[in-house]
Amino acid sequence: MKIVRQTQKVVRLEQHRWFGYHPKWLAKSTCEQLINELADAVQWPESHIHMFGRRIAEPRRSAWFGDPHCSYTYSGQLRQPQAWRTELFQLKILLESELNHNFNSVLVNCYRDGQDYMGWHRDNEKELGQNPLIASISLGASRRFLLRERRGEQQFEFLLGSGDLLVMRAESQEICEHSLPKMRALQQARINLTFRQIKQS
After folding, report:
1. Is 69 helix (H, G, I), strand (E, B) or coil?
2. In what residue span(s) does the Fe2OG dioxygenase domain sit (predicted)?
């Protein structure tokens, strides 16, 4: 498929200089095509996570893609990568050119409606190395995205829309936690693509 990037605009988050926000980074037509292809073709295994000492159903669907060596462990489960899909690999190449950074994997999360969510967390697993750069693309329904300082009281919120790109740089995972809270009235789905670099041990 043809990936169409729509804008060069970057919104600086002055409160959090480790984050870069690129609204409508992908064209609407590209977003719609990606949603249709991923929703129909990706295998969304139902999985469980460990939270507060309990094993619970993951409150979203997720799939892991990447280079063959890119196994990834989080929330007590080991994920082996599925082979790159063409459209995901095309996005990887585009992001590498845009950000001057190499990626070898992507976590695809599907939030089926506003009941699915992501709790407060940091992307600080050992496989990501120190100070990882993570590129996050949103597709579909707009969702609230929250940031909070780990050693302060400041919290920041904004709305991630379809085609938006959020880049979490350098020490962002050390300084902040982030979450995607429930939006109970929302009926539409959102797909989120977070491109990462897994370090070989």
Report:
1. coil
2. 102-199
Q: Does 75 fall in a domain?
A: yes
Tokens at 24, concatenated: 């409508």
Q: Does residue 116 contact residue 59 with C-beta atoms inside 8 Å? A: yes
Q: What is the pLDDT of residue 187?
A: 96
**3-state DSSP assignment of residue 127:** helix
> Which amino acid is present at 30?
T
From the first residue on, what is the mean pLDDT of each consecutive set of 10 residues in the chain (201 residues)?
58 58 93 93 75 74 92 78 96 95 94 89 64 90 87 80 88 72 95 90 57
CB 24 within 8 Å of CB 159: no
Domain extent, residue 75, equals 11-42+57-196
- CATH number for the domain spanning 171: value is 2.60.120.590
CA-nearest of 160, 168, 100, 158 to 135 is 168
